[in-house]
Amino acid sequence: MAGIEVSALHKRYPDGTVAVEHVDLSIGDGELFVMLGPSGCGKTTTLRAIAGLERQTSGDIRIGDTLVNDLPPAERDIAMVFQFYALYPHLKTRDNLAFPLRAEGLPKHEVQARVGEAARLMRLGPLLDRRPRQLSGGEQQRVALARALVRRPRAFLMDEPLTNLDAELRADMRTEIKHLQGELGATMVYVTHDQVEAMSLGHRIAILNKGRVEQIGTPLEVYDRPASLFCAAFIGSPPMNLIEVEVADGKLRGQGGLVLTPPPGLPRDRPLVAGVRPEALEVTAPGADRSVPARVVSAEWLGDEIIYVVDHSGGRDVRVRMPPTVRFAADAQVGLRHTGGTPAVYDVRTEELVA
Amino acid sequence: MAVSVDEAVSAGPTPDRPPPARRVRRRGHGRSVLEVVLLTVLAVVMLFPVLWMIETSIKENRDVYAVPAEFFGFTVTLDHFRDVFVGADGGRSALSVAFLNSVVVAGVSTVLATVLGVPAAWAYSRFTLKAKKDQLFFILSTRFMPPVVVVVPIFLMYRQVGLIDSKLGLILIYAAFNVPFTIWMMKGFVDEVPAEYEDAAMLDGYSRLQAFGKFTLPLLVPGIAATAVFALIFSWNEFVFAIFLTSSDDVRTAPPAIAGLIGGTTVDWGLVAAASVVFALPVLVFAYLVRRHLVAGVTLGAVRR
Ligand SMILES: Nc1ncnc2c1ncn2[C@@H]1O[C@H](COP(=O)(O)OP(=O)(O)OP(=O)(O)O)[C@@H](O)[C@H]1O
Ligand SMILES: [Mg+2]
């Protein structure tokens, strides 16, 4: 296994589309690194550049200690799993697995041993003699993963490998991939636009937007302190409430009267926005201690929680996550209060985290 | 000829793809009377000339002119077929030479168009190119004009470079006409084969060309067969270029040679019909042999999109 260094990657397609503006990544040996971002932000392009399937316009890519800019994919010693599994339709599972090994020219018994091992890891025993079309989507994906495993590559690249599976299977495969990665100590770059997948899988997450990295951090860091307004709006469902605030008397005051604890080192001379997670707010009975008057606009019952949309005098509507036991009717007069710690605060103009 | 090809194309659904709804309805509820009547009329109109050609080819020449025409009960003779291949002097006839020329010209030009067109189609399908759409449009635009429009300039060009009255000249012009068609048709087939196969193969240790040859190409065989049949039929049937650009018996292909039989003081209709039957057979047989490929789906069912 090996780490991957991407520096100042820029990719412009011949038709003029700039898919990757500027990306720096430093992926550790044995790390499960997730690239997360909306559609079209350049995730696939970055991954394909690492794989060598796409030549970057500028920038360097290192795998381990090797500068691989000019190496064809075949010589980079990495495996890739695609959203569409790319199993060879005319080959049985067994031969699909053996294929990359035969391409390398390994001796027969070695091929057999490795196929056996991968089949055991991914529990493919009964499927070995079937062709791809005789396999379900989940089974095909397991074969595709096993196919990536047999080569014992220096790193795995995965491009939305679970997108085509239904929700339940996706959760299972997620666990499986995480387990496998830990067991093998594999370096893995995992691309997804599903934040749940990113949060549950990644050791670290890179959030991409328009061909640039917005933030790199552990799932917790990314959730607690989004580095920019884009990240704040992208992570979490529902995402953070962005509340325009002013600093006064050592407090952050929102337009609707909400009072928040300011983080240290706030600049005073520019317009600020505080990012407040829906679970850091609380809907209370009207007039409760430290609450501001508010009105329930609507409520979404999700079973294990209720998301209230609340209008508080003059401020923007905010979303509040409450346990299902606390019920207010729509249009009810209520109180709104902040219960979390210090919020993340952003500069409105630069859209970046200031404190 | 066109009739047989059309039929071959629409024959039988493939198991992989659901047949169009129209066909399902027919299968499901039986054909309505109107459909049967219309199809019968169509079949008669289409097939009668063919039938008449076959009859004429086995009638003696005096029966050909019989009024009223004889449908049955004429003396059957195979003399005309002998005359197609054996000349008056007992050696090879001019017609048989023309048939051989047709085989060579149609075969080689089709191979050439396929060898050039398939990789081009692959490239157009797989790579991002500058002004790709414009390039493809330009390629297609060479087919907008019917041959008769360009035949005179080509005649002059050919005279300059010495390609007039040569099989090579015909092969080149047919290939030139078939390459755009091959590119367009094959691009559709290549688009259907997911590029990930090649990506995966390249990561597995193959070069781009090896990946194409080893994975994509086998999946394209049905498409190539279908495309080649159409190219072959075009070259085999082509008349305008053949009659303008060739003149001598040992270069001429079958269509102008057969047409050459008509004219003069007496026309040996039996010979014309027999030559036409012989001329029509190879394409029929070929289209029949590859009919499965003409309709086969391209990928083998591993595609989940
Ligand atoms: N071969 C190509 N030629 C031209 N433009 C391309 C090509 N491939 C991708 N692009 C463009 O580059 C941008 C980034 O594409 P990319 O596939 O990397 O996005 P992505 O983040 O993987 O999106 P998704 O989540 O939809 O897969 C998009 O605007 C896309 O249209
Ligand atoms: Mg993508």
UniProtKB/TrEMBL annotation, chain A:
Gene3D superfamilies: 2.40.50.100, Nucleic acid-binding proteins, P-loop containing nucleotide triphosphate hydrolases
Keywords carried by this UniProt record: ATP-binding, Cell membrane, Membrane, Nucleotide-binding, Translocase, Transport
One example GO MF annotation: ATP binding
Domain ABC transporter, residue spans: 4-235
Domain of life from the UniProt record: Bacteria
Stored InterPro entries: AAA+_ATPase, ABC_transporter-like_ATP-bd, ABC_transporter-like_CS, ABC_transpr_MalK-like, ABC_transpr_MalK/UgpC-like, Mo/tungstate-bd_C_term_dom, NA-bd_OB-fold, P-loop_NTPase
Name of this protein: ATP-binding cassette domain-containing protein
Protein species of origin: Micromonospora antibiotica
Lineage of the organism: Bacteria, Bacillati, Actinomycetota, Actinomycetes, Micromonosporales
TrEMBL record, chain B:
Keyword Transmembrane helix included in the entry's annotation: yes
Domain ABC transmembrane type-1: 99-290
Subcellular location: Cell membrane
Record-linked PROSITE patterns: ABC_TM1 (PS50928)
Record field: transmembrane: 32-54, 99-124, 136-158, 170-190, 211-236, 269-290
UniProt-listed SUPFAM superfamilies: MetI-like (SSF161098)
Keywords of this entry: Cell membrane, Membrane, Transmembrane, Transmembrane helix, Transport
Protein name: Carbohydrate ABC transporter permease
Organism: Micromonospora antibiotica
